[in-house]
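[job 0412] stage=complex_fold ligand=pyridoxal-5'-phosphate status=START
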Amino acid sequence: MGKAYALEPAEVKPVQTKYRKISTKFPVPESLPILEKLRQWEPRSMSGQPLVVWHKAKGVNVFDAYGNMWLDFSSGVLVTNAGHGNSKVCRAIKEMVSRPFLHNYCFPSEVRAQLVEKIANIAPEPLKKVFLLTTGAETVECAIKLCRTAGKMISPSKKVIVSFQHAFHGRTLGAQMVGGIPSLKEWIGNIDPDTIQVTFPGDPRTQDRSFDVFINTLKEKGVNFDNICGVISETYQGGSAAFMPVEYARKLREFCNQHRAFLVFDEIQAGFGRTGKLWGFQHYGVLPDIFTLGKGISSGLPISAVVGKPEIMDLYEPGTMTSTHTGNPVCSASAIANIDYILEKNLPAHAEKMGRVFEKELNRIKEKFSVVGFVCGKGLVWALSIVKKGSIEPDGDLAFDIVKRCVEKGLLLFAPVGFGGASIKISPPLIIKKDAIIEGCLVVEEAIAEACSS
Ligand SMILES: Cc1ncc(COP(=O)(O)O)c(C=O)c1O
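[job 0412] stage=complex_fold status=DONE, emitting structure tokens
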């Protein structure tokens, strides 16, 4: 795992359609100085993405400065739900900048008041308090802190946080402790023994998806259920776009009620219509005690939020749960405009409808190629798990090659993620139309066929 695309321009077939235009070698020879500078001055960890040098982005398209245009199946990384460069969002940003109003720390401001009210109004009862932060990982840290703080008030040993194998919650210390990818947390050394992972029941490779697995794993690990202060799960697992069975989610909710543990859904990917519902957890018919938001909250600028019941969110005294950039006015204004746009255009319903197009197309592709092991997803988030022929073993190299070929054909995807680095994620802006989906899926099909025969 962990590969970089080579900085060697190659001839690629020219493409010209309504959604895609490729008219240069790739990577573009003139872009090499930029790519080299990034390789020289940034850590190696930053060099994992395909070599499209972004210049501007609008709607479902990303453009470089050399005349090429990509149809975007990535939304950056599931961020631009309202489309790239959404006009309403841009106007809101310009208004704040020209006022000018760039920063407010935790001093009161009207724009922050408007945003927290807006999020609270669309959050289900009784999750009515909103704490704004900057990144997704920070919201996870905050959720962990709130679970433990509340647990400690019941008993000093009520501090176990349960999470799921293969889960990704961000790259900060706490978020990686509750993450379920062992290779990402080797650096920690002394992993908190009160962070426990259980098998994720939605993963297509998982045989037993019953809630008994949750109970039995905790028993095997010697966990006293009453010492659990929180259970955290991505609403769907980012690495595979897999959801947990509804029945499992309901039993998990009951378990948390019974043992006075908070249920936390990490909605950083799933929120704001991505899955065909405004909130991903609506698919389960259960409510969390806390949920975390990021990515699609603003369709571009860095802002995130923790939403929860007032008695949880009010655990900390004035001045003791804050952040320098909480509710930054420019980011808040962009989030307000973005949320208004998502609601006005009913993008969750559109995502649901377009999801049915993807489901059909991607399953058709799966039937055609035995290297497509699994197709998972809902709404406008999907994953193709690439496997070694005739097995369920992930094939990260092949997935990497397929993504490269798609990008060379004008379809933008981010590098493969998930188990074995073999999951090709498909997550276009929620404004995408059916003809663009069909066109993009044909590109994926072509790329798989070429990669398999090379
Ligand atoms: C489910 C989930 N949680 C948390 C994060 C971390 O968010 P950020 O990169 O903004 O810290 C991510 C990012 O990919 C995510 O997908």
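The CA atoms of residues 103 and 328 lie 6 Å apart.
[job 0412] exit 0
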